[in-house]
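Here is one chain, start to finish.
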Amino acid sequence: MSRNVTSPVSQPSVKAPGLLSFPAAPALFACTAALLLTGCQKQEAADKKLQIMVRTETVAMADYAPRTSLTGVIAARTLNNLSFRVGGRVAERFVDVGQHVDQGTVLARIDPQEQESDLRSAQADLDAAKAQLTQSVAAFERQKTLLAQGFTTRRDYDAADQALKVAQGSVEAAQSAFSNAQQNLSFTELKAGAAGVITARQVETGQVVQAAQTVFTVAEDGDRDAVFNVQETLIAKTPASPAVTITLLSDPQVRATGKVREISPAVDPASGSIRVKVAIPDTPAGMPLGAAVIGSVSAKPAKAILL
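Its structure:
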């Protein structure tokens, strides 16, 4: 009898759940170690962030005088408003704003025709008065001689004496009028009373001006002032006569020290500030008129907590 022999069929191997093959174990351990290491690093970083550095200072009560700085401008200490002493039409103008002039420099001239006519008339009146005086002197001397000889009356002598005195008075009056006419002619030229810089001009050639009408403004040479607009509260906190350090805004190397010369008694209604002028003795040449400057001053010392 034949026997059937069946060969065994191979079955796929099935691994028990929860078990890993030996080659996967190192990878698992590496991942676990990396996670643990990362967690430790984050914990260390968090611990470092939580560290707070504290610094201590010793405080004490002491006098404290803060310094305040303001911007101002250099101005002339003396400004002269120049005008003609007689009226007329401006015939010539010789200077303009910004020019430096010396004392006695002719700035402008008005048409002198009227003044020249007045001078000629005064000269004629003076000549007539002198002629009348000559006649009066001769008449008086004649009456004086005749009176001594007894050939005239006392009344005629007194009349000649009175006429002589009137003639003398007429000559004096005519001489005074002539001098005034000469002065008026000289007043047709406007001259600088002092050396300085022309800062303003209010006239043009051909314009008719009145006597005493301002024509030019001259800033006289000499020491300058630094002018500041200061808040009223700051003035109250500043000593009465503080030393003010003046520094040229465009060049801090140019410095000077000044003293408060003038404080305006009224508050400017437009800005709410008070104008303060600081005198600068021996003003540096680098601080010309109109230059912007910085003024620094210390306030009154007050008790404060200082670190």
